[in-house]
Amino acid sequence: MAQYSAEVDGVFVALADPTRRSVIRRLGRGPTSVGELAAEFPITLPSFMKHVRTLESNGLIRTVKTGRVRTCVLNRERLALVDDWLAEQRRVWEDRTDRLERFVAEQAARNEPERQEEGL
């Protein structure tokens, strides 16, 4: 569980930056060279490479070097960590709101005779 948590934390940290999210969005259309990706952003190549390394170290992308060209490929399976985490959180909150709804309904049913006696 701790390993899973650290992995999810890393993915969320990587996705917290708008440049990195843009790279992920772009790679969703297919593999692209680092040079082509970097050309889309108004930052220096060394700064862009820091984003690439962050995405790669958190497993969201992998890079393949062929000659002088480094190509980035999206790791869609890693994004499933985010889906799984969000689904788990959604389930927890739905359970909580369901319990709250049942509690409110039970309290209303319990108080109904008193309300009728009071003419409300």
UniProtKB/TrEMBL annotation:
InterPro entries, per database record: ArsR-like_HTH (IPR011991), HTH_ArsR_DNA-bd_dom (IPR001845), WH-like_DNA-bd_sf (IPR036388), WH_DNA-bd_sf (IPR036390)
Domain HTH arsR-type: 1-94
Example of a GO MF term: DNA-binding transcription factor activity
Pfam families in the record: HTH_20
Source organism superkingdom: Bacteria
Keyword set includes DNA-binding: yes
PROSITE patterns given in the database record: HTH_ARSR_2
Transmembrane stretches, start-end: none
Keywords annotated in UniProt: DNA-binding
Keyword Lyase: no
Protein name: DNA-binding transcriptional ArsR family regulator
